[in-house]
Structure formats: structure tokens, C-alpha cells
Amino acid sequence: MKRFISILLTLILVLSMTATAFAADYTVVKGDTLNKIAQKYDTTWRELSKLNNIASPYTIYPGQKIKLPGDAKTTVEDEYVNWTLPKSVYELLNKVNLTEAFTKEEVAVYNSQLYASYLYDLAKYPDPEEFTDQGNPKGKVVSGTMEDSEFYPGTSRIYKLYIPAQYDASKPANFVLIYDGQNYKDDAYPKYFNVFDNMIAAGELEPTIVLLLAHGTPGPGQPILGYNEGEVNRSYEYDSISDWNARFITEEVMPTLLKDYNISKDPADNMVMGCSSSGIAAFETAWYKTDVFGKVYMSSPTFVDIRFGNVWPSAIRMSDKKDIKIFTICGIHDLDNVFGSWLAGNYDVGLALEYKGYDYRYYNTEGGHGSAYSALLPDALRWLYNDVECDAENIELQTFPELIKGN
Q1: What pLDDT band is residue 218 in, cutting at 50, 70 and 90?
Q2: DSSP character for 173?
């Protein structure tokens, strides 16, 4: 069976490479624009943008493949642009029904583990005082829905945009993007914005605009556990190993939702954060868009074999070091299932970051999946923006040089 799968993968890869060799496309070089390419090939920039799913502001970059008119029609799944793995491997994976990876009994055990972890966190990691309303100037919150998407056609997503009371349009503001915005309900999101009200008022943060952004709906469903099938696009957006979601953020979301605000152009002022699948999405967003985001806060990021998230330790080691500052937490009782061990995956990433000399902190909590994600937000912000070391209780800083040296 293993030999058959190996032969099948090889055959698909060869066919994919053969098809690519004869495809009519153009490789972008420095100085190119869509209009310049269109004139060269007797077409229009609008046709090229539509054919290649390139949204406003129509940014292209050297090395990018631009399909020319006359090619077979492409889909969003075909157009994940900056492949970390051969495209054929993704195509094979997308044909696998990942929702059948668990039995019903395993789903029940998984859900009970998540609930137990949630109760443990409530007792062990209560919300710190920064989450309370301390009477400081309160920012304005704008709620809305992005009804469609150029990058993920047919999906819509809700958002909440926080504008601090101290915002001055004449001065660039910091920006924080928080994935999985659908989790921040009307009775929950105010406490997160309290953190920014309080830390800005205390002078610990510069005025910071915050975007809570949900994943899209509908979609093919979660990659695990057999629920939400046909309802959410979370896995495609967050777990796929490419720059497609990062480009969606910088080329569609930010120009649409932040067009009226003065956002800092310095990546060191801008942070992206998430938990679980949105944790790995936060990492990838900064990785692929270092010109926009220079800071990452992630909890239990999914560096396991869900859409090949387990490739990142090798990718980090074999790539040039990027200017990203990273704060990671993972529970010692985190998930361990058919896709891998979240704890082991994050250890591997930590070792890779240490090997390349990244500025990062990695803490183990005493809980499970996503443990202490909310509770440690103020500490993460203090270290990422001010280099103040975290002194929270019930967590352990992991240092990797001893492991690397074999001690």
C-alpha cells in the first residue's frame, strides 16, 4: 500500500510538472506591472487581474507566475500562489475527506478534553486586571460584515474594528490583527478592547487599532472531527501552507477596512495573533508579509500534519532569517492525535527558531489546547512591544540551546 501511494504521488508530481512546462504563463520580473504585462501580450490589466484573482491594489512581485488569456480556467484552490510544497501534493490532499479522520468515539474524547481544558483554564488562568474596565478613555468599535471576497469568492466574514480614543489621524497608529474574530461575541469582545484601553492609557502601548476578523463562511468545513462540513472556510484560510491568506489580508482586507485610518508602515509596530489553526495562520501572515507585520503572538499553533503544517521546522531552517519577533505558548496537555502532537510540533518550531537566531519566547502552560491564550495577552504585548519579560504564574519558559547542544 505504501509503495502504491508513493508511486501515485510521484506520478501526480510528474504530471503536474509536465503540465506546468507547457502552460502559457509569464514570470514577473522587477519593475513589472499588470498594465505593462497586458500591453506586451495584447490584453488588458483587468483581464489579467480577473484571470489570476489579483485584487486591488493589484500588487505583483518578482517570480510570480501570471497566467495569460487562453489558459484553462482556474479556481481559488488552484491559485494558492506561493507554494511551500509542490502544488500536486495540495491537490491530492484536497481530495481527501479529512473530516473522516476521527471515529465518533474519538470525537467525544476530543470534545471532553477541550471542555476539561477550558474549565482548567478558568481556574488556573483567570483574566488579569487589564481585562476590566478601569475607567480609562474607551475606544470606538465598528462592527460589520465583508459580504464577499476576491480571494475567497462566495464567502463572507464578520469583523469588529477598534479605534482607540487617543487615535490621531496625523500620526501613524500601531495595528493588531486578531484571527478567529467569530469567537469574540458581544459579551466577550469588550474585555479584549479593555486591554488596549488600559495599556494605551498607561503608556505601555502607543495608540493601536485592532481588527477582530472572522474566517469566511461557507466553506468545506473543519479539517477534523467531522463537524461544520460545508459551513466554514476556516481550514482553507488558516491551515493551507501558502501566502494566499497573507495576501488576502494585505491586498483585500486592509485596503478595504483600514482605508480611512493612518496605519504605521513600520512592521515593528504591527502584530498578528491567533490560536490553533489561526495561530499558524498568524505565523504565516508575518512570514510572508514581513513588510507589514513584524510581531506574532500565537497559542497552540497547528504545526502538525493538517494541510502540511508540519513542514515549518524545515522551512524555517532552510530559509533566510526573517525580521519577526514571536511569542508562543502551548499546553503541556495539548492535543495529540492522528495529525500529530501539538507540543512536539511547537518544540520543533522552537528549535528551528533558535537555530536561526530569531527573537522569540516560547512558554509551556499547564493546560491543554489554547491554554491561557487570553490570560497572557497583556504579557505578550509587553514583551513584543517593550521587551518586558513575562512573569505570569503557572507557565514555564522553554529554552532550546541546551537541547541543540545535546546537554
Answers
A1: confident
A2: B
DSSP string, 90-119: HHHHHTS-GGGSS-HHHHHHHHHHHHHHHH
199: enclosing H helix or E strand = helix 189-201
**330 vs 347: CA distance, rounded Å:** 9
Neighbour-count burial of 115, counting CB atoms closer than 10 A to its CB (0-12 exposed, 13-18 middle, 19+ buried) = exposed
Alpha carbons 289 and 243: distance in angstroms, whole number: 8
Using the structure block, give the residue that is written with the C-alpha cell 492525535.
337
Domains contained in the chain, number: 2
Domain residues for the domain of 6 are: 2-74
User: Is 98 part of any domain?
Assistant: no
CA separation for the pair 225, 301 (Å, rounded): 18
For residue 70, the domain's CATH number is 3.10.350.10
C-alpha cell at 267: 512592521
Same domain assignment for residues 44 and 176: no
- Give backbone dihedrals phi and psi of 174, rounded to 5 degrees, phi first: -65, 160
CATH number at residue 364: 3.40.50.1820
pLDDT of residue 7: 41
